[in-house]
Amino acid sequence: MARKRAETAVKERLTRERIVDCAITLAGTEGLEAVTIRRLAQDQGVTPMALYWHFKDKDRLFDGIAEKVLSDVTLPPESDDPWPEQLRVLLSELLAVLRAHPAVADLVKTRVLLSEPGLQLAERTLGVLRSAGFTAEQSAQLSGHALQTIVALVTQEPGLMVGEDPAAREEHIRLKRASLQALSPERYPLTVASADAFTDCGNEPAYFELGLDLFIEGVRGVQPGQSDQR
Amino acid sequence: MARKRAETAVKERLTRERIVDCAITLAGTEGLEAVTIRRLAQDQGVTPMALYWHFKDKDRLFDGIAEKVLSDVTLPPESDDPWPEQLRVLLSELLAVLRAHPAVADLVKTRVLLSEPGLQLAERTLGVLRSAGFTAEQSAQLSGHALQTIVALVTQEPGLMVGEDPAAREEHIRLKRASLQALSPERYPLTVASADAFTDCGNEPAYFELGLDLFIEGVRGVQPGQSDQR
DNA sequence: ACCTGAACACCGTTCAAGT
DNA sequence: ACCTGAACACCGTTCAAGT
User: What is the Cα–Cα distance from A35 to A16, expressed in whole angstroms?
Assistant: First the structure.
């Protein structure tokens, strides 16, 4: 009981890591909108301006968040498996990591090329795509789509609501579903029939599997040297 | 010269349409961040609170923007073409509309099911997918991915910078490209080789074609009753 | 019906100053 | 090196009041 304690936790020195961790936790519990410089400072028991010694501005803090999340990605060893398998393994790993941090997945989307762990993931993804016969240009674009697909899968999952208690979540889903079901069945029969699926993804594994399959099959379909008649 | 004039244009009464149009224009010229209640009011020569008579809050204004943009989508007549063709036509139309409004495309992504024109597009898309043999659940998910893919194609186009003069844009691209090219060629050879493609999509038609193909081929690949061995 | 005035509770950020 | 105090220029939104 030496010195003074702050709030519930032992007061430690401010550091980039601590700020980033705090931001990730806060985003996870209350949503990314709750992550403000001032709120972060308050939770750390410090002045808002204290953060500016560690980060040039909020955008750099976001860079730090993305880097930290991407550092959770563990790349598999190089393999001789067919490229679709390798691609699936890479994307599944990224998917698993982002699923643990849906609130900040959108930050990652635009920041992969800005950090060491992101670059390693990108390099490996490009490797798989190049081995499938794509050019540097095509591989760049496809790797971007891959990232984009995984992030969308995580952030747009129907019924997902970060930083909302289960009761409010249920209510939100119920309301949205009701409004879809209230549509004219003559004009929007298919939309009404899909109301459940639009508001809550009933089966998570199937949802993510279809998303992954969709992308990988898409890559297969545009692969150079394929019979592409339609 | 009766009454008084404001700024450069003739002062007219405030209306939902005028506010939405103003917001879309502003987003296009200065970016979505520039679209604030206060700025909109200022441009219209009115108090910020005036807008609250027309829209409950900023989110409803965003709903209005999305609806207006989606109303530009002109649906093709029903056809007997094979479903991939029909899907391509629908997505190309949406793509063309969003390409004209990249700054607000992200707003559209989460609001298709909230307006008449969006619902009509969704219904048609679901129709095509259902005709391809997908269930209501699968079709809902795939239509979501379709939307998401088109929006991403428009908003993530490398080298696109909404609300930035060409000079600043060039400089921005140059800088980002240089930083990629400065990476270690031993550790990131493929990333360095793709630096150009990551920073500027050299060939727009090819970029959008590949994006569309990727999605449509993906749907083809996950279509029920296909030989799906990998 | 349509708009204003004043106020509230927030933001990110700068800059000079403290230890 | 690391943090604070005070201030600036913004936000969205509410509420009572005006015409």
Answer: 15
Pair of tokens at residue A41: 């400072």
In the block, which residue shows the tokens 């029920």? Answer: B224
How many Å does it take to go from CA B173 to C1' C13?
Answer: 26
B136, B145, B180: residue with CB nearest A193: B136
**Residues B184-199: tens digit of each pLDDT:** 999 999 999 999 999 9
Identify the pLDDT of residue A12.
Answer: 72
- Going by pLDDT thresholds of 50, 70 and 90, the confidence category of residue A13 is confident
Instruction: Please tell me whether any atom of strand C lies within 7 Å of the Cβ of A39.
Output: yes
- Mapping DSSP onto H, E and C, the string for chain B reads CCCCCCCCCCCCCCCHHHHHHHHHHHHHHHCHHHCCHHHHHHHHCCCHHHHHHHCCCHHHHHHHHHHHHHCCCCCCCCCCCCHHHHHHHHHHHHHHHHHCCHHHHHHHHCCHHHCHHHHHHHHHHHHHHHHCCCCHHHHHHHHHHHHHHHHHHHHCCCCCCCCCCHHHHHHHHHHHHHHHHCCCCCCCHHHHHCHHHHHCCCCHHHHHHHHHHHHHHHHHHHCCCCCCCC
- At B213 the pLDDT is 98
What predicted TM-score, i.e. pTM, was given to this entire model? 0.94
